[in-house]
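[Discussion] Sanity-checking designs against the backbone

I'm trying to build intuition for which residues belong where. Below is a structure token string of 217 positions. I'd appreciate it if someone posts a full sequence so I can compare it with mine line by line.
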């Protein structure tokens, strides 16, 4: 790709100031969308979902771990190779230290429609400590748009707890329509950093993505 034009420091600063105005406007739009997202109505979750985790059976309420909010990442599983999807693995790699979410009364968990033994083996390979639960045999993935026509889809579901009542407040992913998964892009820190560079992401799409232990090969 063509490299940027070479200019003087003063010319660069003029161009940078012009871009700053665009960045500030984008930030205002992003905050307005976030505010609208917070105002979405919510749906009571009456179904009794049961998951399997390292400590045994767990209900959806248990995934909150005592906090008021829960973010679930629907992690696609590749049953043919008994490993996680590279794109979902990329998303998991971009999750920060959970202490920051916990400080805001929010829990985070991965959920996959896969046997727990396979999940645990892959998690150890990837070096993750993120909470990860199996929803195999249950309707959780289907009910929240992460399984369609027998095939898995990635996505995010957000829940709010009020006492022992659980409410579904937000969802993002392909099941919500073309382009709906763009709402997940801001949490992918690698893309955010690449977007600061002159070469950017260097190619459209995500075909270049690999599991983080496979780039060398």
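Best answer:
Here's mine. Compare freely.
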């Amino acid at each position: 790709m063509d490299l940027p034009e070479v200019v003087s420091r003063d010319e660069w600063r003029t161009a940078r100031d012009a871009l700053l105005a665009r960045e500030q406007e984008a930030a205002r739009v992003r905050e307005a969308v976030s505010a609208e997202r917070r105002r979405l109505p919510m749906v009571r979750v009456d179904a009794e979902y049961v998951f399997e985790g390292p400590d045994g059976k767990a209900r959806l309420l248990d995934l909150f771990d005592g906090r008021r909010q829960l973010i679930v990442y629907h992690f696609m599983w590749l049953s043919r190779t008994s490993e996680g999807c590279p794109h979902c693995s990329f998303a998991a790699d971009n999750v920060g230290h959970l202490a920051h979410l916990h400080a805001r009364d929010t829990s985070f968990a991965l959920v996959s429609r896969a046997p727990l033994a396979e999940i645990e083996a892959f998690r150890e390979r990837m070096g993750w400590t993120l909470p990860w639960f199996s929803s195999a045999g249950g309707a959780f993935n289907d009910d929240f748009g992460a399984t369609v026509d027998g095939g898995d889809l990635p996505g995010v579901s957000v829940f709010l707890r009020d006492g022992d009542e659980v409410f579904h407040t937000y969802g993002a992913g392909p099941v919500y329509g073309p382009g709906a998964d763009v709402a997940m892009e801001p949490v992918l820190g690698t893309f955010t950093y690449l977007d600061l560079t002159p070469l950017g992401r260097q190619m459209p799409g995500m075909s270049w993505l690999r599991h983080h232990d496979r780039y060398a090969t």
